[in-house]
Amino acid sequence: MLTIKKVPTLVSNYQEDQNSDGNCNQPDSTANVGATGCGRNCLGNCCLPVSQLPLYAFKVNENDLDKKSTYSCNGVSPMCFLNNLLLGQWEDRMRRGLFRYDVTACETKVIPGRYGFIAQLNEGRHLKKRPTEFRVDQVLQPFDEKKFNFTKVGQEEVLFRFEPSKDDMSLFFPAHPVDAGSSSPSVVAINVSPIEYGHVLLIPCVLDCLPQRIDHESFLLALNFAKEAADPFFRVGYNSLGAFATINHLHFQAYYLSVTFPVEKAPTSRIMSRKGLHGSELVVSELQDYPVRGLVFEGGSTPRDLSDAVANSCICLQQNNIPFNVLITDCGRKVFLLPQCYAERQALGEVSQELLETQVNPAVWEISGHMVLKRRKDYDDASEERAWKLLSEVSLPEARFEKVKACVSTSAGIQLGPDNRSLDMKEGPYDSQTPPVASHLHQRCLVTSSLASTL
C-alpha cells in the first residue's frame, strides 16, 4: 500500500469538526431522526428532504454544443444569469464571513515566459495542523460515511441546486422544495478555502453518497455547468483519488480566472477521430511541448456525445487504477484529460526534497498552469523554469502514456490515426483581452441589483 502525508485543504467549515482518527464528531446525517432533522440544517437525509433551496434548472440541449440556453427573467441576459446568480450568492457568503480568508487579497501574477504560468501566493490555504495520511495507490475506494462527506455540510454553504429543467428553457426558483420522493439533488456549494474568485464545488446527487469516481451522468452534469455559464474564463475541474482529491465524495470544482491557462495555449497533435451525425467529428489530440502528457477532447455531435467519450475514458482509467485530473474549458466544448503519477512518485521517495518543501500538491489547477504557492519565497522566485520542473514530475512516462491512449481509443470507440494538426502555439479565446496580471474579479457579468433582490 502506498501512502503520502499531506495537510488536507478544508473545503467546508464543517470539515474541521473531526476527531483524531478523521471521523466526524457530528450526528450521522444519514440516520432517520425525524422530519425536523438533526438540528444542524445539513445536507443529509435528516434535513435536506424537508428543506427549500434555490434551484437553477438548466435547459437540456441534446442537439448542439454551441447552442445557448434560453432564459427570460426581468430582462437578464441568458448568458449572464448563471454567472450573476453564482457570483451574487458567493459574494453574499463572503459578506457573511463563511470563507477562511479573503482570496481577493492574495497576490497573483503572470510569470514571464512562453506559456504565461500564473502564480498565486495563498498563505491562508496552508493550515497549521498535522498532516493526514492518504492512500494514493487505489483510485477506486468505497464511500465511508464515517469520514467527512458533503452530507455533513451546513445549508448556509450551499448556493443553489443545479439540475436539468423539465421545460424547454432554463429556469430559476429562489426557493424550491426538495422532494423526498424525487432523485437526489445536485448542489453548488462554496469552497471555504478558495483558490480564486467564485470558487465553488459541484456535488452531484449529494444524498446518493457517491464515491469520488467519474460516471456518465455526473460528468454530463459538470459539462453542462460549464456550458450553461457560457464564459471561457469559468473552468470546471476534477481530481481523482491518487491525483490529490482528498474527500471521497463525488465532487467537481470550478472558478473564474480572467486569463488563458497555459494548458489551453499548448500546441496539440491530432491522434484520434470519429465521424458523427450531420458531418460532426469528435477529435482527440495529444498535448505537445507541455510538461505534462495529456489528451484534449473536442467536437462531437451533441454535448452527451463529447461527455460520454470523456466519461468512458475516465472509467477506463479508474478500472486500470490510473490517477487523473480533468479540466473542462471553452464553455464545455473542450476537455483536457491529464493522467498523473506525482503522488505515486512521492510515496516511493522519488520526488526531490526541494519540490516537497514547496508543499505544492499538483492537482488539476496546478497542472493546467495556475500555481498555488504557500510560501513567499516560492512566489518571489517563481519562474517558468521552476513551474516546468515541478510539472515534469507529474507526467506519466511515455510507455505508460501510450497505454492510456490505447485505453481511451478502445473505451471511447475513437480510432487512432496519424498526426495531421499543426503544432503551433495556440492563442487563447480571449488572448487580446488577457490582462498582464490575472484579475480576481469577473468584469463582464456583474451582479445586478435587480437579481440580488430576488435571491
TrEMBL record:
Domain (GDPGP1-like N-terminal): residue spans on this chain:
82-255
Q: What is its subcellular localisation? A: Cytoplasm
Top-level EC class? transferase
Domain annotation GDPGP1-like C-terminal: ranges: 262-412
Question: What Enzyme Commission number(s) appear in the record?
Answer: 2.7.7.78
* GO CC term (a single one): cytoplasm
Q: Where is the signal peptide?
A: none
- Write one Gene Ontology MF term: nucleotide binding
Task: Please provide an example of a Pfam family that matches this protein in its UniProt record.
Answer: GDPGP1_N
Q: Which reaction does it catalyse?
A: GDP-alpha-D-glucose + phosphate = alpha-D-glucose 1-phosphate + GDP + H(+)
Is Cell inner membrane among this UniProt entry's keywords? no
The principal location of this protein is: cytoplasm
Judging by the UniProt lineage, the source's domain of life is Eukaryota
Q: Which UniProt keywords apply?
A: Cytoplasm, Guanine-nucleotide releasing factor, Hydrolase, Nucleotide-binding, Nucleotidyltransferase, Transferase
Q: Which GO terms describe its biological process?
A: glucose metabolic process
Q: Which PANTHER family match?
A: GDP-D-GLUCOSE PHOSPHORYLASE 1
Q: What does this protein do, in the record's words?
A: Specific and highly efficient GDP-D-glucose phosphorylase regulating the levels of GDP-D-glucose in cells.
The family annotation for this protein states: Belongs to the GDPGP1 family.
Q: What is this protein called?
A: GDP-D-glucose phosphorylase 1
User: Which classification does the entry list for the species?
Assistant: Eukaryota, Viridiplantae, Streptophyta, Embryophyta, Tracheophyta
